[in-house]
Amino acid sequence: MPSITRIGLVAKTRLEGAAGVLAELAGWLDARGIRAVFETETAALAGLPPGRPTASRDALPAACDLIVVLGGDGTFIGMAGRIAQAGVDVPILGVNFGSLGFLTEITLPELYSSLESVLDGTAQIEPRMMLRSRTLRDGRVHADRLALNDIVITKGALSRIIDLSVSIGDRSVMRVRADGLIIGSPTGSTAYNLAAGGPIIHPAVDALLITPIAPHMLTNRPIVIPGSSEVRVAPAMDDHDEVFVTFDGQSGHPLMRRDVVSIRAAERPMHLVRASTRTYFDVLRQKLKWSER
Questions:
Q1: Quick one: which of 76, 84, 214, 253 could link to 146 by a disulfide (CB 3.0–4.6 Å)?
Q2: Contact at 8 Å (CB) between 9 and 37?
Q3: Looking at the structure, do residues 135 and 215 belong to the same domain, yes or no?
Q4: CA 247 to CA 224: how far, in whole Å?
Q5: Strand locations in 62-121 (E)
Q6: Domain-embedded: residue 293
Q7: 49 and 109: one domain?
Q8: Full-model pTM
Q9: Please, which pLDDT band fits residue 172 given cuts at 50, 70 and 90?
């Protein structure tokens, strides 16, 4: 990967415990001749003196060569989406404050050794599929969004079961009556998909997941399809139905009658800096407590 001269720093909003770490990290980077670019709110959290380079969360991906996220998986997912939206290949290193995360899997004691490995070119940087969702309305693209974990079509709070037609390309696959439907990436297989009874897919597998949420028919089961597929979901709605599509659980919009949601792998993957001290299966064992009786 290209040499790293600028590192973006982002902390979870109001994460007071990160303030001291941020100031120490800025000094560590200064000593190595690397420019620390602080996300605007993160700079205020760290209480840094004026003059430090800052950028908004949306502008940060274009202003640095690596992004370090301090917080949890939600903060990480938000930055992954912004990197994808910017169309850049900036790796992201997630440091978890609290328990180990599926994405923010580097612990605070591992921060500096992990950064050293990125700087000297020995870090394991893993590509992770991103998803692109297009909502088609009257034959036009109404919304175009990117997500790391999943695209979810779900009913409103007071709605009854919704009826969804699912196709892969132009071929009909199933009709689902359920509380909703998850279209997930391998990375997202351990997110909402897992809670809904879907399978865990190793992130190196080129696949998409289709998982019904509380289906009316028990024969509607999760399926795994090739990563090159285009999934099209069309809700059958009447005037009283409320149906929404959400992206990584962080944003979304309502659907209208005859809307179609088209989902496929995005053109660019996200690049995740992995912890050198544990494998993907180590993370699964710890998070899912497989080693406990």
A1: 84
A2: yes
A3: yes
A4: 19
A5: 66-71, 92-96, 106-107
A6: no
A7: yes
A8: 0.93
A9: very high
